[in-house]
Amino acid sequence: MCTRIELMELYEAYYNMVYRLSFIMLKNKEDACDATQDVFLKLIKTDTSFYSMEHAKAWLIVATRNHCRNIIKSSWKKMVSLTTEQTILEQADNNGKNDELNSRVLTSLLKLPKELRMLVYLHYFEGFTIEELARQLKKNPSTLRSRLAKARKLLKLDLSKEESP
What is the pTM of this model? Predict the structure, then answer.
């Protein structure tokens, strides 16, 4: 069990990561905020002893992924209408720099299937190697490389469509 100081350190170190991952999966600012809060509440209640910050980070990623999947599967979420892309862009926190390129990339990223979105986010934004992701997600590294290549192709196709007149 973590001490209060360790919990504060984990919160400060990984709050943004948990929020961004939640946002990528849920496509909604409010749901992402709620999910982030719920994941950190789970952290407070867990008996798990973390042997390093990386171990805690991996736990938070898996907990976030599982929590967001549960939200997506819930009957309430299915009844609520999907957020439009424009609303997603308005809600995205780009530090006030919601320029055209960021908007186009974010729009394309959010169009990817959930598993590909998460993989792209963890690899390119959080800096995880394929091998680290394979261990955390319990997948074959070659499978993840193939999925990442597929995600890059889909992003490239979508972005090139938007550039065409």
Answer: 0.62
